[in-house]
Amino acid sequence: MSTSSPRRANAEPRWLRLTLTAVALGFLGLFLALPLVAVFTEALRSGWDNYLTALADREALAAIRLTVFIAVFVLPFNIAVGVAAAWAIAKFDFRGKSLLITLIDLPFAVSPVVVGLVFLMIFGAQGLLGPWLSAHEIKVVFALPGMILVTLFITFPFVARELIPLMQAQGKDEEEAAISLGATGWQMFFRVTLPNIKWGLLYGVILANARAMGEFGAVSVVSGHIRGETNTLPLHVEILYNEYNAVGSFAAASVLALLALVTLVAKTLVEWRMRRETEMLAATLAPEATGTSTGNRS
Amino acid sequence: MSIEISGVTKRFGSFTALDNIHLDIPTGELVALLGPSGCGKTTLLRIIAGMESADAGHVKFAGEEATHLHARERKVGFVFQHYALFRHMTVFENVAFGLRVKPRAERPSETEIRRRVSELLKLVQLDWLAERYPSQLSGGQRQRIALARALAVEPKVLLLDEPFGALDTKVRKELRRWLRRLHDEMHISSVFVTHDQEEALEVADRVVVMNHGKIEQIGSPDEVYSNPASPFVYQFLGNVNVFHSRVHGDWAEIGREEAQTRDAGNVVAFVRPHDIEIENAPVAGGLESLVQEVHTIGPLVRVELAHGPELVEVELTRERAATLTLGKGQRVWLRPRQVKVFEASAWDLEDGGSGI
Amino acid sequence: MKRVLPGFGLSLGITLVYLGLLVLLPLSGLVFKSSALSFAQWWDIATGERALASLRVTFGASLLAATINAVFGLIVAWVLVRYSFPGKRLVDSLVDLPFALPTAVAGITLATLYAGNGWVGRYLEPLGIKVAFTPLGIVVALTFIGLPFVVRTLQPVIEDIEPEVEEAAATLGASRAQTFFRVLLPGIFPALLTGFTLAFSRAVGEYGSVIFIAGNMPLVSEITPLLIISKLEQYDIVGATALALLMLIISFLLLLGVNALQWWAAHRHHRLNGGAL
């Protein structure tokens, strides 16, 4: 965001500016800053010792491990499919393209609880595939595979959504140039396309990761809440909270809040990088580069 | 390497971008595809490059069928309108790209790549920019790097899409001359697309004028300018006054010899503003007119005259204008030096307008 | 047709297979499952007393939360784009917190803050305002969840306003308020509506942040997603499926609505710019 000092004619009177700023900051303070501070305060309410004990709990550690495992497992799929979808949509014209874009957004629109239920209806004991699965002793719901499936569903749109507008803005010229210079498809992809989209890709991955680690509703439905086995960190937070173990619950929550802060910082850094890239793109397309165009012209 | 295009047709949905195009480009020539936007010139260039496939017709390189060759296999140098430089690579790496992606067996050694790239950068006079990134270059510099990159793979044909379109006027003129010199040195068959008639006339050996997916005329710059084959070409290459014989019976008479077989009521006469002489006294066949405006534009004097309801534009040299001492409202007589007559129907197809 | 750029078949194939297997097939499984119900049965479940009450709570709270977000989101976006104050970049980054913070964490934190002895609740309770464990608590949670949508949709649009437009209005004698309501607001209205709809549609499906603060009293503060879960826990698969299908249809309609709005906004923009793009 360019720090804009509005021109005179466009400025609100000083009292109004101050009032609006105060209202905005008050609203954000009440709804964002206060909860964030509260998480850590509650977690440390009875001292560092209790906090660290709560975190070192065997079940808490198991929950952290499971949460990380699911995210690490899910992200490569998100990357591969997200890039594939963005490539097809941004670089080619075909019938039904806007329908496809809408369908990619679908997982964002569906309630997490419904997502969980949907997978229960298919893989659960009474689900469509239930009898077959139990005959072959394959456990999907109330087990890791089900949790991975719903997480894949929930996080599907992030990478593609981030890449589609970026790749559309970049156009096809550079890829066409690479091909006309004799590059093969993979050479073109790894040498030209990937370097151009790497920050957008990272941005999508950061968002997908935050969602994968933080997902609650959908995972809750298919996990079965088996302590030490199918409890992710958010589910662990819920269980402890419902047992009135405030310190344990907020200790686990503070880890997730920390993750959220790391996500925000990473996101801001990547955004900053991407803005520079956009400026570079704009400069590359503009008729003349600014600044360094001192020209030794023949 | 020569290029032969025969029967090429391309449709986008219901829109016909190219309609049965035939064009031969001999080895070593610099050819301009000239026309207004949407006339199909860029599509034709992309079909030659293999970036687009034709619905019908053939493209041959040096007599060999190339229609179904992939862009990668055509050995064509393509310079994009917006240069399409790889923004994550330095100028050096941009130029080296085509060499680096060659299959291992054909790929030159690293020292050879360095030598070839710096040679090319010297050729485009930008070797001092090798470590810069595209965003740090001026438009004209980017254009020359794009050209060096295309030349690195030693193409047999060089194709340029609006090569000077995104540059400002001064840089344009310099680059134009520079491209012409470069072509004379390298002597590879080159085709460039432009909508700027001045550019086409100045740079090209031959000009292909296109409109609505068809070729209107092929000829040397002088031919297409002084002997346009159609009203469209006349209109597109420079300013023109259009005279309908109904209105200007006398002038259609002047073009009579050319239009002997045509019906006098149905012809339209085209005269360029600099092909009209202004006389202070009545002359035979002269059109009596009133001076409306006199503008001095650099070396030229542009006079706007009214003949009845019609507006006529005439361009004179400063010297000639000085001897005439033209003033507003002055009565003068116009005499054409060169008139071209077309049938009115051919004209109506293009435009119903009245001249300039 | 031959294409120059490679990988169209491969990339589209991967996308369609993945989308089909992971998203569309499971969703149609739900539709298939509920086809065991006749429409009348389905309607009975969807309009049962407890279901209707939950829908009323869900949609009422979502509407209220989205409205709060529209009003304050507009102010926040305006302040963040137009004014400068110390720490602006930090505040700007913080706006995305609800996207990054797991909903369960938001849920327990808000419940603790707004409980009678919480930092906020202890000042509201003496005034007779109970937030936690009432429908009002649901509104608070949903406002938190939907906060970034309006701000993030509006920011680029406000940034794109050309200062000349406002200057023109000013030279024509418009007051600042007239300029805002007659010139600027109509321009950013489609984005505002899009942000509102996004926040609303997120709120309707929200579960994690709500259940801790809602109190979950049937007929009073029970949201539909929670009702689906409690039906599941009572092994009322049919009831859960029926409600889930209803939610699915609603979210599909909201998604179409958002798309239509975005198309409208883009189209309008296009036309205002004289179609040049």
From TrEMBL, chain A:
<keyword id="KW-0764">Sulfate transport</keyword>
<feature type="transmembrane region" description="Helical">
    <location>
        <begin position="99"/>
        <end position="122"/>
    </location>
</feature>
<keyword id="KW-0813">Transport</keyword>
<keyword id="KW-0812">Transmembrane</keyword>
<keyword id="KW-0997">Cell inner membrane</keyword>
<comment type="function">
    <text>Part of the ABC transporter complex CysAWTP (TC 3.A.1.6.1) involved in sulfate/thiosulfate import. Probably responsible for the translocation of the substrate across the membrane.</text>
</comment>
<dbReference type="GO" id="GO:0015419">
    <property type="term" value="F:ABC-type sulfate transporter activity"/>
</dbReference>
<keyword id="KW-1003">Cell membrane</keyword>
<keyword id="KW-1133">Transmembrane helix</keyword>
<dbReference type="InterPro" id="IPR011866">
    <property type="entry name" value="CysW_permease"/>
</dbReference>
<dbReference type="InterPro" id="IPR000515">
    <property type="entry name" value="MetI-like"/>
</dbReference>
<dbReference type="InterPro" id="IPR035906">
    <property type="entry name" value="MetI-like_sf"/>
</dbReference>
<dbReference type="InterPro" id="IPR005667">
    <property type="entry name" value="Sulph_transpt2"/>
</dbReference>
<dbReference type="Pfam" id="PF00528">
    <property type="entry name" value="BPD_transp_1"/>
</dbReference>
<protein>
    <recommendedName>
        <fullName>Sulfate transport system permease protein CysW</fullName>
    </recommendedName>
</protein>
Automatic annotation (TrEMBL), chain B:
<keyword id="KW-0547">Nucleotide-binding</keyword>
<dbReference type="InterPro" id="IPR041193">
    <property type="entry name" value="CysA_C"/>
</dbReference>
<feature type="domain" description="ABC transporter">
    <location>
        <begin position="3"/>
        <end position="237"/>
    </location>
</feature>
<dbReference type="GO" id="GO:0016887">
    <property type="term" value="F:ATP hydrolysis activity"/>
</dbReference>
<keyword id="KW-0472">Membrane</keyword>
<dbReference type="InterPro" id="IPR050093">
    <property type="entry name" value="ABC_SmlMolc_Importer"/>
</dbReference>
<keyword id="KW-1003">Cell membrane</keyword>
<dbReference type="Pfam" id="PF12857">
    <property type="entry name" value="TOBE_3"/>
</dbReference>
<dbReference type="Pfam" id="PF00005">
    <property type="entry name" value="ABC_tran"/>
</dbReference>
<keyword id="KW-0813">Transport</keyword>
<dbReference type="Pfam" id="PF17850">
    <property type="entry name" value="CysA_C_terminal"/>
</dbReference>
<dbReference type="InterPro" id="IPR024765">
    <property type="entry name" value="TOBE-like"/>
</dbReference>
<dbReference type="InterPro" id="IPR003593">
    <property type="entry name" value="AAA+_ATPase"/>
</dbReference>
<keyword id="KW-0067">ATP-binding</keyword>
<dbReference type="GO" id="GO:0043190">
    <property type="term" value="C:ATP-binding cassette (ABC) transporter complex"/>
</dbReference>
From TrEMBL, chain C:
<keyword id="KW-0764">Sulfate transport</keyword>
<keyword id="KW-0813">Transport</keyword>
<feature type="transmembrane region" description="Helical">
    <location>
        <begin position="207"/>
        <end position="229"/>
    </location>
</feature>
<feature type="domain" description="ABC transmembrane type-1">
    <location>
        <begin position="55"/>
        <end position="256"/>
    </location>
</feature>
<keyword id="KW-0812">Transmembrane</keyword>
<feature type="transmembrane region" description="Helical">
    <location>
        <begin position="93"/>
        <end position="115"/>
    </location>
</feature>
<dbReference type="InterPro" id="IPR000515">
    <property type="entry name" value="MetI-like"/>
</dbReference>
<keyword id="KW-0472">Membrane</keyword>
<keyword id="KW-1133">Transmembrane helix</keyword>
<feature type="transmembrane region" description="Helical">
    <location>
        <begin position="241"/>
        <end position="265"/>
    </location>
</feature>
<dbReference type="InterPro" id="IPR005667">
    <property type="entry name" value="Sulph_transpt2"/>
</dbReference>
<feature type="transmembrane region" description="Helical">
    <location>
        <begin position="127"/>
        <end position="151"/>
    </location>
</feature>
<comment type="function">
    <text>Part of the ABC transporter complex CysAWTP (TC 3.A.1.6.1) involved in sulfate/thiosulfate import. Probably responsible for the translocation of the substrate across the membrane.</text>
</comment>
<feature type="transmembrane region" description="Helical">
    <location>
        <begin position="183"/>
        <end position="201"/>
    </location>
</feature>
<feature type="transmembrane region" description="Helical">
    <location>
        <begin position="57"/>
        <end position="81"/>
    </location>
</feature>
